[in-house]
Design brief:
The chain is mainly α. It has six helices and no strands. Bound molecules: fe (ii) ion (2 copies).
């Protein structure tokens, strides 16, 4: 169903949140010698493609437009969209920071402090925790009240497929999930 599909996505979003929280903690504690720049670049790819384009895309383009006129949900949805924007801004700053570091390494220049990286990761982890909690409650209400009709549900799920294609299709989503798994198994996650 359209709602449970998003709740299921939230499981990988939550896993991603745990990875970046750990990553941030390690950097702040100066125990990040085994966190490679490549690992952080993978974090950035998962953030942008899996969390934002794919999951937030499904919510913004398929689910929310179909639910915002029901009951009094428009205010909740407006807040969710603002939060997505916040997430996008943090993801953009994080990506720029990584690009700068990569450039410094290539040019043999001194690399700046890692503090902004730790800060952006922590901010994104906080955003995820807070946002998921609110959305899950919202989805529970929709499910308990049986608000979406069978036809609407089908239409939303069809729209999800378009979102998936926009994110590079099933193969790319599976690749991104494998990248998340890769991060979860890095030695700095222990
Ligand atoms: Fe969500
Ligand atoms: Fe969301």
């Amino acid at each position: 169903m359209a709602t449970s599909d998003l709740k299921k996505d939230h499981l990988f979003v939550k896993r991603f949140g745990e990875v970046i929280q750990k990553c941030s903690d390690k950097i702040y504690a100066d125990e990040d010698s085994n966190i490679l720049l490549e690992d952080l670049e993978i974090v950035s790819v998962v953030m942008e493609e899996l969390i934002d384009t794919f999951h937030h895309g499904k919510e913004e383009k398929a689910y929310f437009p179909n639910t915002q006129n029901k009951n009094s949900f428009s205010e909740d949805i407006r807040k969710f969209l603002i939060e997505h924007e916040l997430g996008r801004r943090i993801a953009g700053m994080f990506k720029r920071e990584l690009l700068t570091r990569r450039k410094c390494i290539i040019e043999g220049k001194q690399v700046d402090s890692k503090e902004p990286i730790a800060r952006f990761l922590k901010s994104y982890a906080v955003f995820i925790t807070d946002h998921l909690e609110k959305e899950d409650k919202f989805f529970d209400i929709i499910e308990s009240k049986d608000i979406i009709s069978i036809d609407e549900d089908k239409a939303i799920r069809n729209h999800y497929e378009l979102c998936k294609n926009k994110s590079g299709g099933q193969a790319r989503i599976e690749e991104l999930l494998k990248l998340l798994e890769y991060l979860e198994h890095r030695d700095w996650m222990k």
